[in-house]
Amino acid sequence: MKITFIGATHEVTGSCTYIEAAGKRFLIDFGMEQGKNIYENQKIPCTPSEIDFVLLTHAHIDHSGLLPLLYAGGFFGKIHTTKATHSLCKIMLKDSAHIQEFEAEWRNRKAKRSGKEAYVPLYTMNEAMGAIECFAPHNYNERFTISDGIDARFIDAGHLLGSSSIELWLTENGVTKKLLFSGDIGNSNQPLIKDPQYAESADYVITESTYGNRIHEKQKDMIQPLAKILLNTFRRGGNVVIPAFAVGRTQEMLYYFKQMKDAGMLEEFQNVPIYVDSPLAIEATEIFIKNKENCFDEEAMEYVNRGENPIGVRGLITAVTTDASRAINFDNRPKIIISASGMCDAGRIKHHLKHNLWNPANTVLFVGYQAEGSLGRKIIEGADHVTLFGEYVKIEADIISLPGMSGHADKNGLVRWVENIKEKPKKVFVIHGESSSAESFTELLKVEYGYDAVAPYSGAEFDLITEKYTAAEPIFIPKADGHKPSAAYDRLNVALDRISALVKSSRSLSNKELAKMADQLSELCSKWEK
After folding, report:
1. Per-residue b/e over 508-519, b at no fewer than 16 CB within 10 Å?
2. Are 30 and 70 in contact (CB under 8 A)?
3. Residue 254 belongs to what H/E stretch?
4. Final residue belonging to a domain, choices 356, 378, 401
5. 360 and 292 within one domain
6. Interstrand relation of 461-463 and 53-55 (parallel, antiparallel or unpaired)
7. Dihedral of CA 194/198/199/205: which sign?
8. Are residues 495 and 479 in the same domain?
9. pLDDT of residue 498
10. Residues 233-287 pLDDT 10s
């Protein structure tokens, strides 16, 4: 039984952990890296076709976004997750593939004019659909058997609709070890969804550390400071632009705006229009309503029980088509614009920033985490200008990051989650945090709470039987490169994995078939060697 740490090690995105146990090879999450890429991740130690199954903590793309690439490489196993995560991934993975294909089409139009080489999407819509067909949804709190020697259970992590921590029981040769994967632990008292659920036991814990060195500013009432920001902006004739994750944060904001309008807190601006410019967010909002009984907290259910939609705010205008999106910028009224992506690196939000950042009457309000290297992070850290669609845009708008609105637990919340385990785990592995945060939280667990804790780098291994930990050295991506390998190169590596698996499985073929395969592969090599 062995754990290999692959992604989100000393980084926040790209979550992936590889496990070998009970004769199976499987992954916990397979997410896309977002923002600045500092460290080189090790490859998964087998081909995609050799992965037996995946356990997925939640739908955010930094946890689920590479599942279509796994499918493209020959994976056809089950992807086990919660029912709500399954519903969200149906739309989020398709949206991710659409973005991939749209960006390739846009880049290739430019490349054709300038004579540059073609851009290849990381994966296609067909591959996203194939991955979606692999999903196997489960209820919260129900222990289920995946195969002999492997049981799992999802418990509510309180981070996103359907988000989970994973309890995992592994048995080999009569020896059972229990692992607990935190997933992303939610902030307490978030709107709409329930607080994190705690597990009572685990031999080994793998925990996130996004805010492992920070304590969220206490906000007894988020409504009041938010209403003040809105009124100040509207009274100077400006717009409030909110970059928000389409799934989770957008719905929370609608919930806050409903409470404000119901209480008359927007005064003369009670009828201010609220644009949601994200087809994904619109679809996700419908999924929130469909999962209300299982996922909404008591306060949100009070609305439901009296026949009201807790995120059905008056003045809401949804923009699905690109024409509807463009039309928003010709509406001269003060307004609220919620658009994705939450870190401003892709999607329609970039158009709204282009039209609003330069105007001092406007406010750009950040309500979520901004990864290092993301456009959102550059803006909140004081950049005086940004380049959007090749155009220099000076930043004159009021830039505000609203504290207390994180979807992640802070340092105290993470400690509370670990401390709830009644008997101290034998070891705690700290991942999913920038280096400063992961190392700070590891030290806190060791020095103040007496845990055996470590923050692994990609490639580190832990043998669950011998309890031997093999550390890995960090591999930095050269600064001179400053970029990730191209999507085309990633797809080529996936194709190589698929060919390797095909060759390994070909022993039963006849000599004639083997010779034909060898000739065709040799011909392919000869073609590209020229």
Report:
1. eeeeeeeeeeee
2. yes
3. helix 249-262
4. 401
5. yes
6. unpaired
7. positive
8. no
9. 83
10. 999 999 999 999 899 999 999 999 999 999 999 999 999 999 999 999 999 999 9
CB-based contacts of 318: which residues, under 8 Å, 6+ apart? 275, 276, 282
Alpha carbons 396 and 382: distance in angstroms, whole number: 11
The four Cα atoms 328, 331, 333, 334 give a dihedral, to 10 degrees, of 20
Say whether both 348 and 268 belong to one domain.
yes
- According to DSSP, the residues that pair with 207 across neighbouring strands are 430
* Cβ burial 267-287 (10 Å sphere, 16+ → b, else e): eebeebbbbbbbbbbbbbbeb
DSSP, collapsed to helix, strand or coil, labels residue 127 as: helix
Across the chain, what does the average pLDDT equal?
92
Answer whether 0.90 is exceeded by the pTM: no
For the segment 166-179, the average pLDDT, to the nearest whole number, is 97
Q: Poorest-confidence range of 60-74, 241-255, 338-352, 515-529? A: 515-529
Contact 364, 343 (CB under 8 A): no
- Bond from prior residue into 341 cis (ω within 30 degrees of 0): yes
**For range 351-379, the mean pLDDT:** 93
Asked whether residue 345 falls in the same domain as residue 412, the answer is no
Q: How far apart are CA 53 and CA 146, in angstroms?
A: 9
Q: Looking at the DSSP assignment, which residues form a beta bridge with residue 80? A: 55, 136
Q: Please, what's the b/e burial string for 439-466 (b: 16 or more CB within 10 A of its CB; e: otherwise)?
A: bbbbebbeeeeebebbbbbbbbbbebee
CA 79, 85, 86, 92 torsion: positive or negative? negative
285 and 417 both lie in a single domain: no
Which DSSP string corresponds to 267-312? GGGTT--EEEE-HHHHHHHHHHHHTHHHHB-HHHHHHHHTT--TT-
Based on the domain organization, do 9 and 28 belong to the same domain? Answer: yes
Tokens of 64: 């689920």
Total number of domains constituting the chain? 3
How is 72-122 classified by DSSP, letter by letter? HTT--SEEEEEHHHHHHHHHHHHHHHHHHHHHHHHHHHHHHHHTPPPP--S
Region 391-395: mean pLDDT is: 96
* Residue 252 and residue 189 in contact, taking contact as beta carbons nearer than 8 Å: no
User: To the nearest whole percent, how much of the chain has pLDDT over 70?
Assistant: 97
For residue 103, the tally of other CB atoms under 10 A from its CB is 15
Q: Residue 486's pLDDT is what?
A: 63
Distance CA 309, CA 287 (A): 13
Residues 510 and 396 in one domain: no
- Please answer whether residues 289 and 309 qualify as being in contact, where contact means their C-beta atoms are separated by less than 8 angstroms: yes
Instruction: Give CA–CA dist 177/464, Å, rounded.
Output: 7
The answer to whether residues 321 and 396 belong to one domain is yes
Top-ranked range on mean pLDDT: pick from 91-105, 339-353, 460-474, 491-505: 460-474
Domain that holds residue 68: 2-215+407-484
